[in-house]
Amino acid sequence: xxxxxxxxxxxxxxxxxxxxxxxxxxxxxxxxxxxxxxxxxxxxxxxxxxxxxxxxxxxxxxxxxxxxxxxxxxxxxxxxxxxxxxxxxxxxxxxxxxxxxxxxxxxxxxxxxxxxxxxxxxxxxxxxxxxxxxxxxxxxxxxxxxxxxxxxxxxxxxxxxxxxxxxxxxxxxxxxxxxxxxxxxxxxxxxxxxxxxxxxxxxxxxxxxxxxxxxxxxxxxxxxxxxxxxxxxxxxxxxxxxxxxxxxxxxxxxxxxxxxxxxxxxxxxxxxxxxxxxxxxxxxxxxxxxxxxxxxxxxxxxxxxxxxxxxxxxxxxxxxxx
Length: 322
Hints:
Blueprint: H1 4-14, E1 16-20, H2 28-37, E2 42-46, H3 52-62, E3 67-71, H4 76-84, E4 89-91, H5 97-106, E5 109-111, E6 113-114, H6 117-125, E7 130-133, H7 141-149, E8 156-159, H8 168-172, E9 180-182, H9 188-192, H10 196-211, E10 214-221, H11 224-237, E11 242-244, E12 248-251, E13 255-258, E14 267-273, H12 276-285, E15 296-297, E16 303-307, E17 315-321
Parallel strand pairs: 1-2, 1-9, 2-3, 3-4, 4-5, 6-7, 7-8, 10-13, 14-17
Antiparallel strand pairs: 10-14, 11-12, 12-13, 15-16, 16-17
Helix pairs in contact: 1-12, 2-3, 2-10
């Protein structure tokens, strides 16, 4: 069994956790492929059908890198069934202290559902750091979560129930959101009709929207003699102002003129993202490597800046939080 803290960190990096209802075990393998190809290597398989146990086994066998968990877990017996199937995390719609303690005894990550301050108190008493907020939209959504975070500052949340592509950024932009859970990329009719290509497409679309990638600025390597002139010219061209830095100048905020330190053969490209930690998880899964020594972290331990290991066309490329 994977270490529960490691599993939770990986889920946080993925950011969007598909909640799945499977009626047929034979759909499990192609669904696992579609999710991984789409950039969402996680699956919460809900105990709402008899196929759940065998489906988890099939998904993990097809895609070992997929983090498979069990959802709608209500009893200790379901915990045992999930663990027998290789589940790496447990999600419940409500907070049952006996089930939570049983999961903790078994060493598996558990995320019970809460919808009130009283239930949040119980979760804290059980030593939990992350809870599911369910049903999210019906209970006031991100406004309610922010209100709860006033007195309860140490808890992070997994909102599910009514979360979709139109509102997920409202949740994910708040730093107390562990991840969001949703079904819009794994709707029953898509699975029933074998539209796994569509599952892959919607999953990738969701990931890219979550990351919010855009070119933040381009860095140009320049001599000290020409640095200020170059910055002035770009500032005039782009109708911005020149800003001096410890390494050179910004000729508007789109162009960084590097004179005292050069990055890359030709320069560097800064890509802004909503969450560097999640960008790293996505691109590592695609096979990209990063310069580990370049990565810096925020107070919560999440990456906030990172260079790719290899140059692209003579440019070094890095992620930075928006």
